[in-house]
DNA sequence: GATGAATGAGAGTTCATTCAT
DNA sequence: GATGAATGAACTCTCATTCAT
């Protein structure tokens, strides 16, 4: 078992992603997650307050890593439009590489109640702030138009990425998601850059 | 009572929108909808196969009207970029004018299970086809670039509209949604048009 | 079935008394009560808010009848000491005639939590008030000493009755409870009456 | 820490009384008692067979002391009616001085199941025997009537004391319990003594 | 067509107890 | 002797759907 080494906390979160991706949010009983994780039902509650807490933690954990990785790569890049491209490309790449996670974030987690979705939004703020940074950087250095409304542009960007990924998931991942990055970047960048 | 005239079918759908907007998807029991509609629980099942059918019907009905109205307006317009603007503006306007419906479509209906969401997507196809028409028209007459990937652009457009409306709903509709139409159109159009 | 005539509400309460007397408070699941009553589990919740509500209702219903019957008999009697005797005799007689109820009130219901016990005490107030009436009547007409502390005497009386019945229940009802009435009355009355 | 000296056995029993008085019987988990006692959960099971055993031991220990103290005092007294008074007074005094214990014995321990209550009754036998001794002594020496039924009188006495203390606990100990001793003794003694 | 009382399957969570260290 | 992480059985309540009237 590769599980011997992993702490139970991680073990349970990974099991949750798999179980939810397989069975859907509403058919993912705690007992199923426990079984997949190889622990007793009660053990779950030593690490999580309740079922919802598993989901929030799952999202925090995975989204945290997701954003960190993008941040890391972007810091090495100078130009705003290249940063933008990198963000798009890595957004697609990371979800591409973990299809279970993609199913969970794009479809299943949205079935949670409003309160949980607000908590999820809280976690997303970090990501949105990263987008704002790129946009503001580009506006300053002249890559993008100066009078853009950052909050609105960020909604265009996030909405686009989210929809493109959701589409890919609902089409059962039958095409390559990362391939879309170039075109998406072109459309968005064209919308933002200066034109003569 | 204004309800005397309305057929029970409509009565129930309207009640469903109100109940879901007020209580949230997961607290909208069939009995609550029946009460609000002024009919017995059992009566619901004379008009709808099951609870899910209420939701699908609700979406079909409302979305049907939603799309028809936009179609109607757009047919009168010649230029592709103006059609595009009209679509954006009316998308925002219609949801602006029916906040209960906005809450239901943007937040509550997404809590339904995957199967229901596939059915909802089915209903959306008509709307997406309309977008495709506008885009293809613009590509033909030279308003937009000729080599655009329609399916992808449609995702950018729909994803953007959806995100902007969702944002507005989650911000508790504290600002004017229709005011955003001009800027959103500018960004999208800029992404699509020819540049010298 | 003799049950056809009875309304479900009564049916459930009667079933509850039997089930609790047989299995003890902590082994009386709602499903057991439903089965004994011949209804579905869910039906219970059409008539009672929750499990605790069954118990409170049970106590209110049974205790209400219990006290009414005693009241009725006592009204016909003039002398305070005879009223006192009647109360004691009927207290014993009624519990004697419904051993299941005796088990439930003397042993099982006391296992409920503090909150429920406060509600039960509320129901008892009527009975205690009846005791007060008898005592005050006797103090006025010279049957009992005039300077008695009614609240304390009532505790002596109730505590005594309660203990004697509990003893009888715990001794598995191997002797006749009503036979004790004469002696208990003698002891209590002796404690209260005037002495030369 | 004053606890260093105390053996774990005592430490756990004292913790149990406090925890139960504070939280109520049903919210007094073994882990809470362990924490209060400053030992690990598992340690409890080195000293007690199971949770119930804690409660029985608690009652044996405390009740043993309770009865011994009363016995001790009573041996010094000659007259039966004075012995009776002493018993009443000390019953009240001891519970008065340890309100946590009073809550536990009068309210919380009664929520235990029937089997535990039989075991508790076993422990009480010693106390009841002491009452019997006083009563029989008084019957012999002419203080009390000769034809009293000792077992019944003992129920009157115990039932009275128990109810008076319970009342005091439920009234949140807002008055002085020991003050009641004189009146209670008067009522009981009057019921027992010879009258001319 | 309309009613609404009755149904019964289904799941999150607690906590006494164990046992490897 | 002492620890405390892990176990897993057990139970209330909700609500979509049915069907006799």
UniProtKB/TrEMBL annotation, chains A, B, C, D:
<dbReference type="InterPro" id="IPR050624">
    <property type="entry name" value="HTH-type_Tx_Regulator"/>
</dbReference>
<dbReference type="Pfam" id="PF00440">
    <property type="entry name" value="TetR_N"/>
</dbReference>
<keyword id="KW-0238">DNA-binding</keyword>
<dbReference type="InterPro" id="IPR036271">
    <property type="entry name" value="Tet_transcr_reg_TetR-rel_C_sf"/>
</dbReference>
<protein>
    <submittedName>
        <fullName>TetR/AcrR family transcriptional regulator C-terminal domain-containing protein</fullName>
    </submittedName>
</protein>
<dbReference type="InterPro" id="IPR009057">
    <property type="entry name" value="Homeodomain-like_sf"/>
</dbReference>
<keyword id="KW-0678">Repressor</keyword>
<dbReference type="Pfam" id="PF08359">
    <property type="entry name" value="TetR_C_4"/>
</dbReference>
<feature type="domain" description="HTH tetR-type">
    <location>
        <begin position="6"/>
        <end position="66"/>
    </location>
</feature>
<feature type="DNA-binding region" description="H-T-H motif">
    <location>
        <begin position="29"/>
        <end position="48"/>
    </location>
</feature>
<dbReference type="InterPro" id="IPR001647">
    <property type="entry name" value="HTH_TetR"/>
</dbReference>
<dbReference type="InterPro" id="IPR013570">
    <property type="entry name" value="Tscrpt_reg_YsiA_C"/>
</dbReference>
């Amino acid at each position: 078992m590769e599980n011997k080494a992993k702490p139970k906390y991680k073990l349970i979160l990974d099991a949750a992603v798999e179980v939810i991706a397989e069975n859907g949010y509403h058919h993912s009983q705690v007992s199923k997650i426990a079984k997949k994780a190889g622990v007793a039902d009660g053990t779950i509650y030593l690490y999580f307050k309740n079922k919802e807490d598993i989901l929030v933690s799952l999202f925090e954990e995975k989204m945290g890593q997701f954003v960190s990785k993008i941040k890391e790569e972007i810091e090495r890049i100078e130009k705003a439009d290249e940063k933008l491209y990198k963000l798009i490309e890595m957004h697609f790449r990371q979800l591409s590489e973990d299809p279970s996670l993609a199913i969970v974030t794009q479809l299943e987690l949205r079935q949670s109640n409003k309160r949980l979705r607000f908590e999820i939004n809280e976690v997303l703020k970090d990501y949105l702030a990263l987008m704002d940074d790129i946009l503001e950087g580009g506006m300053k250095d002249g890559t993008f138009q100066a009078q853009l409304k950052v909050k609105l542009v960020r909604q265009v960007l996030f909405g686009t990425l989210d929809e493109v990924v959701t589409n890919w998931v609902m089409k059962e991942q039958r095409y390559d998601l990362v391939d879309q990055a170039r075109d998406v970047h072109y459309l968005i960048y064209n919308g933002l850059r200066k034109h003569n």
